[in-house]
Design a protein that fits this description.
Blueprint lengths: L2 H32 L3 E3 L1 H10 L4 E7 L6 H16 L3 E5 L2 H8 L6 E2 L5 E2 L9 E4 L8 H9 L4 E3 L4
Parallel strand pairs: 2-3, 3-7
Antiparallel strand pairs: 1-6, 2-6, 4-5
Helix pairs in contact: 1-5, 2-3
């Protein structure tokens, strides 16, 4: 095998690992949502981190756009706090996929005159996923925590 062939094989293997990591993260996110282990929103996450940092398995941040300075500063502060408390931080590159996995699926409410009332959108500028109870721990959480590394950008499948 020549050097270019070896580099191409390594690149293909890295993409395969990234894809499987995205699949694993998606499964963990869906399961955590079903088990009510998800906290979203910068202020809610900051409050939860301050009170219960040992219960947090992973902090997910969508990639901030360079023109949104406030979000960038909030992300840096959350990220620093997480790293100080040995909480893995990962960045998600596609916000639409992120929202579709964790989005609000509650039915619309009806107002007095039968017009649908849209529930307020959830804030997905920061998401914390809590550890599952020890008796409910499964291979996806373990695999995710073995493969993830700090500030990794993950591509979610959908």
């Amino acid at each position: 095998m020549t050097l270019p062939d070896k580099e191409q094989a390594n690149n293909m293997q890295n993409k395969k690992v990234e894809k499987s990591l995205g699949d694993t993260l998606a499964k963990v996110m869906v399961r955590a949502k079903a088990e009510d282990r998800v906290t979203s929103g910068v202020f809610e996450c900051a409050s939860y981190l301050e009170s219960y940092p040992d219960l947090v398995m992973l902090c997910l941040l969508p990639e901030a756009t360079p023109d949104d300075i406030a979000a960038s500063i909030q992300h840096k502060l959350i990220e620093a706090y997480c790293l100080e408390n040995d909480i893995q931080v990962a960045k998600i590159n596609n916000c639409e996929k992120f929202i579709s996995l964790l989005g609000n699926d509650t039915p619309q409410q009806k107002s007095a005159n039968d017009n649908p009332v849209m529930s307020p959108s959830l804030d997905f500028s920061c998401v914390l996923i809590g550890w599952p109870p020890k008796e409910k721990s499964n291979k996806h959480e373990n695999r995710l925590m073995e493969q993830i590394w700090p500030n990794q950008i993950i591509d979610l499948p959908i």
